[in-house]
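WARN no homologs supplied; continuing
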Amino acid sequence: MNSTLLEDLTAVSYPTIGHFLEDGFVSPTIQSLLANVKIAGPAVTVRIADHDAIAMNRALLALQPGDVLVVDMCGDHQHAPVGAVTAAAALAQGAAAVVVDGVATDVLELRQTGLPVFARGTSCLTTKRLYGTGSAVNVPVLVGDVQVNPGDLVLGDDNGLIVLAPEAARDILGKALASDAAEPAILARIASGEPLQSILAG
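OK structure emitted
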């Protein structure tokens, strides 16, 4: 992955991307369990069927530094695949974040690790070591109504998550940076008492 692209993306205010695109925005029901986070990294995906914890272990072993682990729970919003041990393992692999279309557990411990975890909420019910056959690592998954392919770029902050193919991220980067650069001047004009008609009608 082009590290310069990732660095440039983290310089963008992610909501600015929402001014220019309509697709790739993960359902706002999936939110960061930590405050003051901002992440960007390529997706390593896992589809977990039948609350099987073994699939998560395989996905953790596939992580490279800077990756974002994206977990499709196949509609299961009861069993948590991420907790203290999972977070420690992800950190040991150098993960940038974990995204779960489902719930997480051990939320206090997760916050202590500092690893950004995005989920629909928390639960005490967890996945089990079942050695099932329906799960898979690094396959296209559906998370928060957005398809995520291995290698897609996952952007996240306290506002939510965006998933973009690398080429789409490159295409939008310049527009987003230019928009961010223009915003302080607009805010200053509003603060100075300039008539809103002249600002908002432009």
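The chain is about 35% helix and 25% strand.
OK
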